[in-house]
Amino acid sequence: MRTETIWQGLMLPPGRFLISRWPWAGLLGVVITAVLGVVLVLPVVATIVILPLWGILFAMIERKRLRLIGHPARASGHVRVPREEKHNWLWIRLTEPTTWREVVALSIGIIMGLLAFALLLAQVIAVGLPFALAVTGLTRPGAEVNLFSDVTFAVGVDNWWHPLLCVPLILVVTAYVNASFTALHGGVISRLIAPRVAEIDRRVAQLTRSRAAIVSAHEDERRRIERDLHDGVQQELVGIAARLAMLELELRSGDADASRAALIAAQDQTERALVSLRSTVRGIHPTVLADHGLTEALRELAGRSTLVLRIRDDGFPRMRPDAEAAGYFLVAEALTNATKHSAASRLTVELGSQNDRAYIRATDDGHGGADPEQGTGLRGLAGRAEALGGALTVSSPLGGPTVVLMELPLIGSGEITYGGKRGGADEDSPRG
Residue 237: CB partners within 8 Å, gap ≥ 6? Predict the structure, then answer.
C-alpha cells in the first residue's frame, strides 16, 4: 500500500513503518515544531499588538511544512488584495476570519512547540541514559546508579552492555511518539489554516460569474462580428457587384472610357472591401498577436490608431494565447473608450511582470468618470481576467485620469521575453 500521509504511515505494520520515511518525517516535524515554538514565543509575547501578522507569517511557514508530512498543498483562505488597495492591506486582513484562525493556529503552534521541545529533551535523555550507564560500568566497576526514586541499577564490567539492549526499544517508541505527535499537530494546524467551505463557495461563485461573463462577452463579440460583416464587408461586396454590373453594361455599349472608369471604380470598391474585411478579422484575433506576442500586436494597433498610443514594455513575458488576447482586447477597449468618451489625447500602456503576476496598465489623459458597470466591454474583460485567475480594476475619478489595470498569473507562461528583456529596459513607443 502506498502511503501518502503520516497518518497512513502509522497504520502500516511496525516493520514496514520503521523502514519507511515516516519516522524521519515525524522526527523532523517535532524538531521544526520545537524550533518554531521556542523561537516565536518571546517575539510574539513582546509584540503581541501585531499578533495577526505573526499568525499570517506562521501560516505561511506551516503550509510549506505540512507538505513534508504528506498533507496536500493548502491554498490560502485570504482574498487577493488588488494593487490599488495595497494601502488597505492590513485592514482587509484584520477583517478576514482566516486571519484570526491563523492567530489561533499560532497560539496552538507555540504551545505544541514548547511541548515538542520537552519531548525532544526527554528523548535525548532516554536515548543517552543507556550509553551513560554503559560508560559508567566500564569506567566505574560495581557502581550502583540511582535511576529514579528508590530504583537503582548496579552496573559493572560484566553487565555494562545490558542497558544498550534498551536502545532499540527506545528508538521504536520514540519513532511512534514523534510520528503521532507530528500527525496530530499537522492535522490541527492544517484544519485551522485551510480555507473554509464558505470561502471556497465564494470562490466558486466568483468563477461561475466569470464564466457567465465570458459566455456573455462571446455572444456580444459574435453579434459585433455579425454586425461588422453585415454593415461593412457585405455592403462593400454589394457595391462591387453593382460596379461589375455597370462595367458589363459599359462593355456592351463599346464606350472604352466609361468601361475604364467602371473598372477603376470596381477595383476601388474591392480594395475597400478588403480593408473592411481585414479590420473585422483583426478585431477577432490579430495575426501578429499569435506570431510575435502582445507588445508587437499593440505596436501594430498603435500604427492604426487615431489617438497617440505610447507603449512601455518593462519585460512583459510571452504568455498563453488566451492571456495575451485578454491583454490585447483590454488595450483595444481602453483605446476605444478614450477616443469616444473621455476626450483624451493620449493613451499610455505599461506592460511588465512583478511577484509572479503580469500586468497591463492603460492610462489616458481624459476627463475620467468611466463606470465599468455601464458598459459590456469592461465587464467582459473582467470576466476574462477572472477566468484566467487574474483581476481587472478600473480607476476613473472625475477629472481623470482613467486607469485600467489587468493582472494575470504567470503560471504556465513561457520564458520568452520581448526583445530579450525581462523587467529591465523601458521602451516608449509613441504611435498614432
Answer: 273
